């Protein structure tokens, strides 16, 4: 089994489909380029049959990408597959991603078919897609709620029909990490041809478990992980790819797995996605939230000044942030103020630390957070007093 996890980004498909206002072609191109810079292997650019605008943007992205491979979504019907192939044929290599539901709830209530009919449709779609490309991904929609015997049958049949990647989505974010990892383990134990395809996972965040479920699946043998930047997507969203990347990166010795990601691009890509999609990032969001590398309590700040790894398991620089932030509040110690003044270019003889710290505490009690320009103003007023 490979020790590399393939990164599949669906910000422009699953992510975009959840936005109040669609992205323009130009905005999608900017995001696609940012994803490419971040080292994403496969970029799902859209669902070409869904609208002429989507077709056009998939085509333009297919024309632009060099290092990442373009992919487009299609239902398990020929018209969708034709549209996907037509939109991407400008690229040297492309992936067609076709899918159909496999859970009993979806098969009976949504598709109004029986499982054998759905199996026929799935294998027919995979065979048809293989006429256009040798890179075909098949997804078992709502795999998380699919009876395991049916899921095993579907995965085996899809691989036999020519799927090179088989994706196991937790479409409604229902499973727990133990359950979801168990599904992947079961597939590896029971599907005889499973090593002929890459097993992929695609988790939604309805219970806040999408990243945990993805990691459990990787531990059980999945070697492609699907997600979006900042976790944007349907309802509560998809697995946040920047979190998956940094989990595998920060705990490299634990997992022993690699990716092609360039983590130092994460912050820039995340900010761009947030701005273009008009989706603010919560301050305490892991990896990319504005508080992710800031330290407020006096004890933490003091520890950070002694050694960065006391309270940081990865550096802000590693995800592309210039440096960590020590929030200056009434809980900050004298130590931190002295350090910040040195960072601002002052020498010890330029200020009286006791007085400055006293003024700082008075100000912090009034306004909460004290900024660098406040410190400079306090120093200026103290020096003025001395001169008078
Ligand atoms: O969540 C899902 O099941 C999907 C499929 C189309 C892969 O987005
Ligand atoms: Zn999805």
Automatic annotation (TrEMBL):
Enzyme class: transferase
GO molecular function: 2-isopropylmalate synthase activity; acetyl-CoA C-acetyltransferase activity; manganese ion binding
Annotated transmembrane regions: none
Pathway(s) served: Amino-acid biosynthesis; L-leucine biosynthesis; L-leucine from 3-methyl-2-oxobutanoate: step 1/4
EC number: 2.3.3.13
Gene Ontology annotations for the cellular component aspect, listed alphabetically: cytosol
Highest taxon listed in the record's lineage: Bacteria
Quaternary structure, from the entry: Homodimer.
Role, per record: Catalyzes the condensation of the acetyl group of acetyl-CoA with 3-methyl-2-oxobutanoate (2-ketoisovalerate) to form 3-carboxy-3-hydroxy-4-methylpentanoate (2-isopropylmalate).
The protein's name in its UniProt record: 2-isopropylmalate synthase
Source species: Ferrimonas balearica (strain DSM 9799 / CCM 4581 / KCTC 23876 / PAT)
Source taxonomy: Bacteria, Pseudomonadati, Pseudomonadota, Gammaproteobacteria, Alteromonadales
UniProt gene name: leuA
């Amino acid at each position: 089994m490979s020790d590399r996890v393939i990164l599949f980004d669906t910000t422009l498909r699953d992510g975009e489909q959840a936005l109040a206002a669609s992205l323009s072609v130009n905005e999608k191109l900017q995001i696609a380029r940012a994803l490419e810079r971040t080292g994403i292997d496969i970029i799902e650019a859209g669902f070409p049959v869904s609208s002429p605008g989507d077709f056009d943007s998939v085509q333009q992205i297919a024309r632009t990408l060099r290092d990442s491979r373009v992919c487009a979504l299609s239902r398990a019907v020929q018209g969708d597959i034709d549209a996907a192939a037509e939109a991407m044929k400008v690229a040297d290599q492309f992936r067609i991603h076709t899918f159909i539901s496999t859970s009993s709830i979806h098969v009976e209530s949504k598709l109004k078919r029986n499982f054998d009919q759905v199996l026929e449709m799935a294998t027919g779609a995979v065979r048809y897609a293989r006429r256009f490309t040798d890179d075909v991904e098949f997804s078992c929609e709502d795999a998380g709620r699919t009876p395991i015997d049916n899921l095993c049958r579907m995965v085996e049949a899809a691989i036999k029909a020519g799927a090179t990647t088989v994706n196991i989505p937790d479409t409604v974010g229902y499973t727990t990490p133990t359950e979801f990892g168990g599904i992947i383990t079961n597939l590896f134990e029971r599907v005889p041809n499973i090593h002929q395809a890459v097993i992929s996972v695609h988790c939604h965040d309805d219970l806040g478990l999408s990243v945990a479920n993805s990691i459990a699946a990787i531990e059980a043998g999945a070697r492609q992980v699907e997600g979006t930047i900042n976790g944007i997507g349907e309802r509560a969203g998809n697995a946040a790819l920047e979190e998956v990347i940094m989990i595998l990166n920060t705990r490299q010795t634990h997992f022993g797995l690699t990716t092609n990601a360039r983590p130092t691009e994460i912050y820039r890509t995340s900010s761009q996605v947030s701005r273009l999609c008009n989706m603010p990032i919560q301050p305490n969001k892991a990896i990319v939230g504005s508080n992710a590398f800031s330290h407020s309590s006096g004890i933490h700040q003091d520890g950070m000044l002694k050694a960065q790894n006391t309270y940081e398991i990865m550096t802000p620089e590693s995800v592309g942030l210039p440096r960590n932030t020590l929030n200056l509040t009434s809980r900050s110690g004298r130590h931190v103020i002295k350090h910040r003044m040195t960072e601002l270019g002052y020498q010890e003889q330029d200020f009286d630390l006791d007085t400055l710290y006293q003024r700082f505490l008075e100000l912090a009690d009034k306004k909460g957070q004290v900024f660098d320009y406040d410190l400079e103003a306090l120093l200026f007023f103290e020096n003025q007093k001395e001169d008078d």
